[in-house]
Write a structure and sequence with these properties.
This protein has about 230 residues and is an all-alpha fold. The chain has helices at about 5-20, 25-35, 40-65, 75-90, 105-120, 120-130, 135-160, 165-185, 190-195, 205-230. Helix content is about 80%, strand content about 0%.
Length: about 230
């Protein structure tokens, strides 16, 4: 994928947007883990915590990109991504972030790494799908997006809360990436197109509709249940 091609820049924007959309909790974890550090060490804790998180995410996603080349893994990864997109659109219960505040720099960084590892599955699958096997694109996209998450998280969260359509758009993007992953699976793709004669390039758009409709329906059902409670 050439650096000066529109496809490269579109895929880069997809990686950044998906990672920002799915990484809101990471900024909270970093803040909680570093809040008891001395003022001088707090900035160091945030910097090295972010640096370590970036390195970890890149390594994990490179492994995911390579694994997705195996038959059926893109198919299952795509199904997982459909579910992640639905969960993103459907309103979720408030999470209680029980992250212990650390008084030492090393302990704070270790806490950030462990928490990031535990929360990275959705990001890794989504970003691996958006990267389309391009490792350089993956590294650039993650390196740009994770600092945006940390230092711009308040703005991003405000944007998502104020304009609900941005969440719907993000869920639709995950649906599109899921459809692309399933469509290009080495085993499932030929079965769909050669055996079942399923039209090319339709599946990503079907997955967009699927994610948006189910996500909105789950949200409507949750709101109605809440309204019916005494």
């Amino acid at each position: 994928m050439a650096l000066d091609s529109g496809e490269f820049w579109l895929a880069l924007l997809e990686i950044i947007w998906v990672n920002v959309l799915l990484s809101g909790d990471n900024a909270i974890v970093i803040a909680l883990a570093c809040r008891n550090l001395p003022a001088r060490q707090r900035k160091l804790g945030i910097f090295w915590g972010v640096f370590a998180a970036v390195a970890l995410r890149i390594v994990l996603t490179i492994f995911a990109v390579k694994l997705l080349e195996l038959p059926y893994l893109k198919f299952f990864g795509g199904l997982l991504l459909v579910w992640i997109g639905i969960q993103l659109i459907a309103p979720q219960a408030e999470e209680n972030h029980e992250v212990a505040a650390k008084g030492r720099l090393f302990d704070a960084i270790r806490t950030i790494l462990i928490a990031d590892l535990a929360m990275s599955l959705d990001n890794v699958i989504a970003v691996a799908g958006a990267a389309k096997g391009e490792i350089a694109l993956l590294v650039i996209g993650l390196a740009m997006s994770i600092p945006l998450v940390v230092w711009g998280s308040k703005f991003v969260m405000l944007l998502l809360e104020r304009f609900s359509w941005t969440v719907l758009l993000g869920g639709g993007l995950l649906g599109y990436l899921a459809g692309e992953m399933i469509d290009t699976d080495r085993a499932v793709g030929p079965f769909l197109h050669l055996t079942l004669h399923f039209p090319d390039h339709y599946l990503p758009y079907i997955c967009i509709v699927l994610v948006m409709v189910i996500g909105k329906w789950l949200g409507w059902r949750a709101q109605n249940k809440g309204a019916l409670r005494p």
